[in-house]
Amino acid sequence: MTLVYTPETRPVEAPTSFEDFLEVLAGLRLSPASTHIDLDHRRLEVYGSSVKLSNKEYELLAYLAQRADEVVSRDELLESVWYGEGLETQTRTIDAHIRRLRAKLPETDLISTLRGQGYRFNSTPTVRVSCTRVHTLAA
Length: 139
What we know:
Elements: E1 2-5, H1 18-26, E2 28-31, E3 35-38, E4 43-46, E5 49-51, H2 55-66, E6 71-72, H3 74-80, H4 93-104, E7 111-114, E8 118-121, E9 127-130
Parallel strand pairs: 3-9
Antiparallel strand pairs: 1-2, 3-4, 4-5, 6-8, 7-8
């Protein structure tokens, strides 16, 4: 579940009493996350059910999700997800993978195409992306 605060049009001051606090809580509503992307375990769950992704589909989704709300160019995707596997910039493989990925996601506008710029993963309250930060120790 995701906690979403929907404020009133007038500014709300910090609660000073328990009753004020309860009033603020009344303005909150819970909305379930329909999509969960677990980057640590390489899983995509839609409405609680696991969705099978190919390795490249997962790598593409993970790369875009980690850069949510940023425009990612085709060149950057070719270099980072396809590791420069000799594909030309004009290749349609990215488009095909994006199309298959969109078909597996409940919200088709989760990944936007920005003509001439690239792609963007649009963060929404119904999508939860989880990733544990990896810490390394230097000797």
